[in-house]
C-alpha cells in the first residue's frame, strides 16, 4: 500500500505521520463529494453563529434556557473548526498526511468538546426539569452566577478527563501502517496503530466514556422521567402540551448526539465484521450531522412555540 507508512525506523518521534482516509474507492469524485461536506460546515458555522448573535443582541433571550443554548452553539462551532481543516483538506486537495502532534491536538479538541457537549445537554435537561416542575422558583434557582459556574464545571470536566490522552499516546511507538479510518483523529483509532501494550489507554478510555457520556445519558433519562411524571399530573391538556413542546428541541438534540455516537461505538467494537464504508459514514454522521442539525432544530422550535402561543 503506497500510502502506508511505518515508524519503526524513525529515530525522531515528530517525524512519524498518520494518514487520514476520506471515502475509500471514491477518490475520483472527491471534488464532488466536497460540495455537500462544505455545505454542511457552512450551515453549521453560520447557523450556530446566528444563534449566538441573536441571543447576545436580544435582551429578552438572556434567560437560562437560551444561555445553555448558546453554550451548545459555541461547542458545536468548536467541533466544526476542529474537524473542518482535515476533512475538507482530503476532499479538496487530497491532503492525507497529519503529524502525530497535530493528530494528538485534534483528538484532544474533538474528545474534550464532545464531552463538554454531553455535559451541556445534561444542563439543558436540568433546565427543562426546573422550568416545568418548579416554574415559580426557576429564576431564583438558575441565577446567572450559578449558570456560569455550571458552564465552567462542564468545560473543566471535558478538558481534565481528556488531557492525559495525548501524553498516554505519546509513550507509544507506531510501527504499523498508520492509516486511520476517518478524516480526523480519534483516540480509540490512534491507539490501535501502536505496537505497544495499549491496556492502560483502553481502560482509561472506557473509564472516561462511562464517567461522562454514559453517566450524562442516564441522568438525562432520569430528568425526562421526572419531567414526564410532572407533566402527567397537569390537569389542563393545553398546559401539558405547552410544557412538553419546550422539550422537543432538546430531545432532538439529545437523540442527534447520542444515537450516532452509540452507532459508531458499536461499529468500531465489531469493526472486523462490518463494512469499512459503514464505519466511515458513521464517523461523518457522528460528528457532522448534530453540528448541522442543532441550529435547524432550535430554529424550528422557536417557530413552534410562537404557533402554540
TrEMBL record:
Any one GO CC term of this protein is: plasma membrane
Q: Where does it localize?
A: Cell membrane; Membrane
Q: Which UniProt keywords apply?
A: Cell membrane, G-protein coupled receptor, Membrane, Olfaction, Receptor, Sensory transduction, Transducer, Transmembrane, Transmembrane helix
Q: Which GO terms describe its biological process?
A: cellular response to lipid
Span-the-membrane segments of this chain are 29-55, 67-92, 104-126, 147-169, 203-228, 240-260, 280-300
Topological relation to the membrane, as annotated? Multi-pass membrane protein
Q: Signal peptide position in this chain?
A: none
Please provide, alphabetically and separated by semicolons, the GO molecular function terms listed in this UniProt record.
G protein-coupled receptor activity; olfactory receptor activity
Write down the Pfam families for this protein, in alphabetical order. 7tm_4
**Superkingdom of the organism of origin:** Eukaryota
Q: Which residues form the G-protein coupled receptors family 1 profile domain?
A: 47-298
Quote the PANTHER family the UniProt record gives. Answer: OLFACTORY RECEPTOR (PTHR26450:SF104), OLFACTORY RECEPTOR 56B1-RELATED (PTHR26450)
Family per similarity comment: Belongs to the G-protein coupled receptor 1 family.
Protein name according to UniProt: Olfactory receptor
Q: Which organism is it from?
A: Chrysemys picta bellii
